[in-house]
Write a structure and sequence with these properties.
280 residues; mainly beta; 26-stranded mixed β-sheet; 1 helix; 26 strands; elongated
């Protein structure tokens, strides 16, 4: 069932039929809430007549899409409002695509979460086993709404910023062009490639290997007390330093060694002209 080009839109959907969700917005300020007794309800309120909104539930996928309508929609963007109420349940795939505006979500759980942010901001309180986030120039915050660990997290940042809170993961892959990524309470294996941006890692558990490549950016890594590294450092004019327990040292280029406490994990650092600091 679908409605299109309404000046304002309100509709209930059969919550039991919804398995996957796709939300794509141009200018909207979107609020998504999940509650135990909630039905599936969508309300869209435009602030101009220059956007087109569609909502449909087909084959278990709820698709909500806002896009500019005609040339005036591109030239005179105005924020609209999208409200989505969902039941508390485990969804399959959830996709967010935000061109501008904002998106907030609370209490959302799914198997796979994908977010693509051009500009604007998103603040998501959710959990997914597989998470992929790409940010061009906006700001994204993700907070784990459970005590579970994800299976895989993929992060790509061009010139925007991303912050993850409470997301342990079996594996995290990060690519930063010139933006910033901060991860609080991380655990599991991690691989990061940094061009000229900044990476900040605050480990909740130091339990797997770490591999970082820095071109001209910076990485700041905080490990729990008692942590140690079995490190190999290669670089040209970059630098790497360790401040773990009683160990305070700069690591010599193209060398390896064991530093810090008894909980030792493999660490590989490749710093061309950037810097990496590892500390408690």
């Amino acid at each position: 069932m679908a409605k299109t080009n309404e000046p304002a839109f309100e509709q209930y959907f059969d919550a039991a039929e919804i398995k996957d969700i796709s939300i794509e917005t141009a200018y909207a300020n979107t609020v998504i809430t999940c509650a135990a007794d909630s039905k599936a309800f969508v309300r869209y309120a435009p602030l101009s007549g220059h956007t087109k909104f569609t909502a449909e539930l087909i084959d278990g996928k709820l698709t909500l899409k806002e896009k500019p309508s005609g040339i005036l929609g591109l030239m005179i963007p105005k924020a609209s409002f999208l409200t989505v109420e969902l039941p508390e349940k485990l969804f399959g795939g959830v996709e967010f695509k935000v061109a501008s505006g904002t998106l907030t979500a609370k209490g959302l759980t799914c198997a796979k979460l994908t977010a693509d942010l051009a500009s604007g901001g998103i603040d998501v309180n959710a959990f997914a086993d597989d998470i992929t986030v790409a940010v061009a120039s906006g700001h994204a915050v993700f907070t784990n709404c459970t005590d579970k660990k994800a299976g895989h997290i993929t992060i790509r940042t061009a010139s925007g910023t991303q912050e993850f809170n409470g997301f342990g993961s079996a594996q995290t892959d990060i690519n930063i062009a010139s933006g910033k990524v901060r991860m609080n309470g991380i655990s599991g294996g991690l691989k990061a490639d940094i061009a000229s941006g900044k990476l900040e890692l605050d480990y909740g558990e130091w339990d797997d290997k770490l591999r970082i490549k820095v071109l001209s950016g910076k990485a700041d890594i905080r490990l729990p007390e008692g942590s140690g590294i079995d490190v190999f450092f290669e670089g040209l004019s970059g630098s790497a330093s360790v401040d773990l327990g009683d160990t305070h040292a700069k690591i010599a280029k193209n060398s390896d060694g064991i530093f810090g406490g008894p909980n030792v994990r493999k660490t590989h650092i490749d710093a061309v002209s950037g810097s990496v600091a590892i500390h408690n």
